[in-house]
Design a protein that fits this description.
Two copies of one chain form a homodimer. With about 210 residues, chain A is mainly α. Chain A has nine helices and no strands.
């Protein structure tokens, strides 16, 4: 890696927590300069604009987020129910041990970009959607695989289940951050565990 | 209401959607001036600061939010399960028919204020917590009342259930806003309905 590439990487990893904590609109160029120790010209030697830094910072955070999810799921073994709980625990872990300070970058970016009209928001929204679609898809695939394996009962709407799992966990991350209390993500993991039990083909707790 | 009070109310109701859509940091004094048609001096005749307008705008949005919840619950009749679904539908309705344009003011304010250090954020965070505590408390009271009435089975952790219900719905609001697709809040209402069924004392779907 050249010195220029190293500087670029350092800017990205320094910018990512700033944007994740303060928002893309909230973190100013002055904040980026103070945190990196670079002048405006130094930043703009590596990036075309603040938007360009914001997008690279989101990509960085989303990649670490994906790595966290994958490592939890890989450690869970082959059972779909265990993999589902592992993905819940991976998302819950972001509340107490975030991949980038400031909580879940997907949630934060989704909320900030959904109604904002500034020039950098359409690209951020597109990226937040893409990362969220990957997350929902990972949950859906675990559930669909569980059905295929005969572990989960037939007829489950895996897409609807995945939407519910991700909603519960992301909403709980918001509550845990708001109150600075991990109880809400713990409750959410319990809910996903209950739901996984209810999906098991031989479970007595089928509600449908 | 005096002319001054009317102007103050008009500033608040004009500012609330700006802050809810663009964020408290994102909506500028220039945005407030453009939307209200008032000069800076006109705004500051009624409010001490932008923070002062932001807090009044949040209070306004949170009051409308509470009114929406209460009217749905009041129309649901006495059954706790019906009241629980009604509160879910009330929150879900914010995605397609918000009380203030820009989605759920509690969710938006929670996410923006949780890590932000600007001078207006501690007061906004306090208000977001207070409003969210009222919402979680309303869900908890419905569940606890269902247990007292014998409609729901004994031993339910009403506080944990309420955390799960609010997490699911607020997370689904985020997804619905991100994708501009009401399917996620519909799934969330279905989840709450399933959960209400599972809480019923005579239900065959007790998972615990």
């Amino acid at each position: 890696m050249s010195k220029g590439e190293r500087t670029r990487e350092r800017i990205i990893s320094t910018a990512a927590p700033l944007f994740n904590r303060l928002g893309y609109g909230g973190a100013t160029l002055a904040d980026l300069m103070a945190a990196t120790g670079l002048e405006k010209g130094g930043l703009y030697r590596h990036f075309a604009s603040k938007e360009d830094i914001a997008l690279a910072a989101f990509d960085h955070a989303a990649r670490l987020h994906g790595d966290r999810i994958r490592s939890h799921v890989a450690a869970a073994g082959p059972l779909a129910s265990a993999r589902l709980v592992a993905i819940a625990e991976a998302i819950a872990s972001l509340a107490v041990n975030p991949v980038v300070p400031g909580g879940c970058p997907l949630l934060n970016t989704a909320i900030e970009s959904d109604d904002n009209e500034g020039p950098m928001y359409p690209a951020l929204r597109t990226r937040a959607r893409r990362a969220m679609t990957r997350l929902i898809g990972a949950v859906r695939d675990i559930i669909a695989d569980g059905v295929t394996r005969g572990e989960f009962r037939k007829g489950i709407d895996a897409e609807a289940e995945a939407s519910g799992v991700v909603s519960t966990l992301e909403g709980a991350l918001m509550l845990t951050k708001l109150y600075d209390d991990p109880i809400h993500v713990r409750h959410a993991v319990d809910r996903v565990r209950d739901r996984a039990d209810a999906l098991v083909a031989t479970s007595p707790s089928k509600s449908r």
